Amino acid sequence: MTGTGSFRDPGVHAPRLGASVVLWRGGTVLLVKRGKEPLVGHWSLPGGHVEPGEPLEAAARRELFEETRLVAEALTFAEFHEIIRHDATGRLLRHFVVAVFAGMLDAGEPIAGDDAADAAFFDLERLDGLEMTPGTRDVVGRSRALLAAG
Question: What's the pTM?
Fold first, then answer.
């Protein structure tokens, strides 16, 4: 890089790493209702931060279990999903990179735990009526296509 500018603004923190799971049971998808900020009350995929030294899939499985008490058999890496939010002045508020895994579940009912206020399986037709975290609908759709191609 040339010039007097800095490649990295010292006021901006590095992106944070997360992992989540799109879990399907038949034609329904598992969602959790966020119990904490940001976006408390919004439905999202079970997931959260990755601990230092923790493999991505292990983090996704841990978060799935902590938030729903469910254990997925086989998981497939689906995509990296970025969440970048700015305030009204354009200042970066948060930047997350989330490793999304997809899988199927034959049976079992979720029990909300950890920072999930609720957890349930939803028919795809019901997703339009839910207040969801940004990007969740798109990730769900792409994961369904990935598993169908499978």
Answer: 0.85
Give which of 38, 43, 54 is closest to 110, Cα–Cα. Answer: 43
Distance CA 100, CA 18 (A): 9
108 to each of 69, 99, 102, 105, 126, how far by Cα in Å? 9, 24, 17, 7, 20
Whole-angstrom distance, CA of residue 49 vs CA of residue 138: 21
Whether omega before 10 lies within 30 degrees of 0, making that bond cis, reads no
Q: How far apart are CA 91 and CA 144, in angstroms?
A: 34
| pLDDT tens-digit series, residues 31-70 | 999 988 878 899 999 999 999 999 999 999 999 999 999 9
